[in-house]
Design brief:
The protein has about 100 residues and is mainly beta. It has one helix spanning about 5; strands spanning about 15-30, 35-45, 50-55, 65-70, 75-85, 95-100.
Length: about 100
Amino acid sequence: MTDSSNDEIERRTSFRLDMEKELVEIFWADEKGQEHNKSIACLDFSRGGVKLDCDQHLLINTAVTVVFKSVNANNKKLYGKVLRSIKQDNGWFEIVLILEKDV
């Protein structure tokens, strides 16, 4: 007899970290070139991408900078583009970014 969970195929190719809604700062420019920033919850993080919980829609392919805050001055910045922006039942958007490889 086999365990059914072992039979499931894992489609992710990189390590994933549950961020438990850790706050991050995001920066982006809209289609008119106006710059925006916002503190939002990071839901998941992996080498390939980031999943965010945001109260507004971001257009696909929008360039976004994500700043992970730390207790010291060395905040980590990651750069990516919006891959998905899906409206949830609660009215907020699940934003998925694909990270740039070599920044």
